[in-house]
N-(5'-phosphoribosyl)anthranilate isomerase (Afifella marina DSM 2698), 256 residues
Amino acid sequence: MRGPKPLLTLDKSADSCDWKAMETEVKICGLTKPEDIDAALAAGADWIGFVFFAKSPRSLSVARAVDLAAPARGRVGIVALTVDAQDDLIDEIARDLKPDFIQLHGSETPERTAEIRSRFHLRTVKALGIGERADLDKASLYAGHVERLLLDARPPKDATRPGGNGAAFDWRLLEGFEPGMAWFLSGGLNGDNIGAALAATSAPAVDVSSGVERAPGEKDPAEIARFVAAVRAHDARCEGAEDARPAANAAPVAAA
Ligand SMILES: O=C(O)c1ccccc1NCC(=O)[C@H](O)[C@H](O)COP(=O)(O)O
C-alpha cells in the first residue's frame, strides 16, 4: 500500500485525472459469440475474456473459445477465466486455448495459484472480492505468485457466481492502494460510470462484463464501443492534463 497520492485526492469529479502517461487497458469479459469478438476488436479493447464456469450465463466450452479466439489472437490479449477449477480443465485450456492469462476467480490460495502458474506455464490474474479495506490486504499474499490482480466487488449474498454480477464496491477503499503489480478495476462498471471510476482510482486497467450487455450473457456491441470510448476519452483528458502539469511534477526530460 502506498501513501496518499501527491496531487489529487479521491474526492474528484469525473473530469479529474492523476498524472499518468500510459493508456488504460480495457478488458471485455464473458464473450460468447463471434459478433462479441468483432465488437471488442472494433472498439479497441486490449483484452478479451472467456468464462469457463458452468453456472455462468457466459460459460462456454474450451473448443468454442478456441474458435472464437482465432481472429483475435495476436491482436488482443486472451484471458481464460476459471473458478476453483480442477487440473484437467486448466490443462485443456492451457493446451488448446493457449491464453495469455488465466484469471482465477474463486478462492484459490496463493499456493494453488503458484502451482497453476508453474505446472501449466500460465501467467495468472488473481481476482479478489472487495467489500472492505481488509480485503485489499490479501493482495500482498499473492505478490510473487501472480502477474496481476483483479479487484471485483464481493458477490451479493444470493449470487450464484463470484463475478459478473454488475455489483460495484466503494472505490474510496482504494485510496493509497499500491500492490506493486498491475491490476484491473472491476465490478459494476459501465459506460456511464467508467469516467468517474477512473478519476477516483487511476486504475491502470479496467474490466467489464454485465455493464456492456443487454441481458445476462448477451453482449451489446454499442455498449462495448461506448465503454471503450469513455475510457479513451478519460485517457485523452489526462494526457492533456499531463502536458499542463507543473514543472515540479513533470517527468525528467532526457538530456539531448
Ligand atoms: O462473468 C461471469 O459470469 C463470471 C462467472 C464466474 C466468475 C467470474 C465471472 N466474471 C468475472 C469477470 O471478470 C467480470 O468481468 C467481473 O466480475 C465484472 O463483472 P461485472 O460487474 O458484471 O462487470
In short: Residues 25-244 form a domain with the TIM Barrel fold (CATH 3.20.20.70). The helical segments are 34-43, 62-69, 87-97, 110-120, 133-137, 139-142, 194-201, 221-243. The mean pLDDT is 89.
